[in-house]
Amino acid sequence: MTTFRWQAPFISVARDHGSGEVVLDDLGRPVVRWGLGDPVDRRLAARANVELCRLHQAAGALEIFTGHSREVRWKAGEDFEEFVARVEGASYEPNDVACFTAHQMGSCRMGSDPAS
User: Fold this and answer.
1) What is the CA radius of gyration of the chain?
2) Facing residues of 68 across strands?
3) Strand partners, 110
4) Nearest residue to 19 via CA among 34, 9, 4, 7
5) What distance in Å separates the CA atoms of residue 116 and residue 105, rounded to the nearest whole number?
6) 104 dihedral zone (left: phi>0; alpha: psi -120 to 50; beta)
7) Pick from 47, 42, 50, 46: nearest CA to 16
8) What is the pLDDT of residues 43-75, one digit of tens each?
9) Domain ranges of the chain
10) Lower Cβ count inside 10 Å, N or C end of the chain?
């Protein structure tokens, strides 16, 4: 947290190709279920992470790390292209990368029947 004022989190926005759903839990609250099960979505996630890393480096970042559950990190002076290759080759299976959205309904398919 002591470095928080120097951090710059970037996110990417892509149109989902796989499937996800919004369901109600036992208390009637909406719960989003979505993952990188679709191969196109996995490739988009990997490409997005690579490009975001390149943007950070171009902006002068001294350290870059991703949202993977296993640390993928680069520090100034280290081989950047080797880091990019690690980011691209990192696992994008469920629970291996933190996925989130800033716009939950961006490409969420909706139905006309409130029961579904």
Assistant:
1) 17
2) 97
3) none
4) 34
5) 16
6) alpha
7) 42
8) 988 999 999 999 999 999 999 998 888 889 999
9) 39-101
10) N
